[in-house]
Design brief:
heterodimer; A: mainly beta; six-stranded mixed β-sheet; three-stranded antiparallel β-sheet; 2 helices; 10% helix; globular; B: mainly beta; Immunoglobulin-like; four-stranded antiparallel β-sheet; 7 strands; elongated
């Protein structure tokens, strides 16, 4: 069930990159393709156990749904992947970050939210899937 | 040709703080232009970060990552003077690879 670290090759003539291996297991493909939150959770193997070892920083109120800053981190041992899901988005899985040994289980980025809803963080460790969530108010949709 | 990736990687107290900005429209495929035509989806799907050909971070993304994806993460076991390489590919087959010196 673990996602393996990616390997990449670059076609030097074109300077193009073809990235393979990174987070490409079938269940993750399904999760990314899911159109509803229920489908996405099912693709990940069902609702994960809530954990207090996951931290999630988000504004309580985001004026602009196109640009919602988010910082996630996990203190769970053996954290391999951190997924960001938004229950109200047309495709709920926003991103999956993979952390090889030596990289802190921490990432900050900016995401889109269609409207007010709940952001879920799913953390994949050697022992399974764990989650944390936070509701957030969005003033202007990030999807139109 | 996609715009260059902007990369900053600084080592402080043994930890490299990495900030990456990948200029990209990240079109959702849900928006319309002035004449009412839907703009096709165009977004980065995968990115990979390596140091000395070792993967140190990778990501899969959907169009729910904001325009011009910005990423911050932290590495240990890398050193000032090494090169950090970032590669991305998008759903239309475009790609970009850039490098920066870790300072």
């Amino acid at each position: 069930m673990l996602l393996t670290a990616g390997a990449w090759t670059a076609a030097s003539a074109a300077g193009a990159a073809q990235i393979t291996g990174a987070a490409s297991l079938p269940d993750l493909e399904l999760a990314f393709a899911a159109r509803t939150f229920t489908e996405a959770i099912a693709a990940l193997g069902g609702m994960p156990k809530l954990s207090t070892q996951i931290s999630l920083e988000l504004p309580q109120l985001a004026e602009n749904g196109a640009l919602v800053p988010i910082t996630v981190s996990s203190q769970l041992r053996g954290t391999r992947d951190i997924l960001i899901l938004v229950d109200v988005n047309p495709q709920p899985v926003a991103a999956c970050f993979s952390f090889p040994d030596g990289t802190e289980a921490y990432a900050a980025t900016r995401i889109r939210m269609a409207h007010s809803g709940t952001v879920y963080i799913a953390v994949r460790t050697e022992e399974g899937l764990f989650a944390a969530s936070r509701a957030i108010q969005v003033t202007v949709s990030g999807c139109s | 040709m996609p715009k260059p990736i902007r990369i900053r990687a600084r080592v402080r107290n043994g930890i490299a703080d990495v900030m990456i900005l990948m200029p990209h429209p990240m079109e959702t495929g849900l928006r319309q232009d002035e004449s009412g035509n839907t703009k096709p989806a165009h977004f980065i799907t995968r990115m990979l970060v390596t140091v000395a050909e070792r993967t140190v971070f990778s990501a899969r993304m959907s169009f729910a990552v904001s325009q011009d994806p910005l990423l911050n993460f932290r590495l240990s076991g890398v050193f000032a003077g090494e090169r950090l390489r970032v590669a991305w590919t998008d759903n239309q087959g475009e790609a970009r690879v850039d490098e920066a010196l870790i300072t």
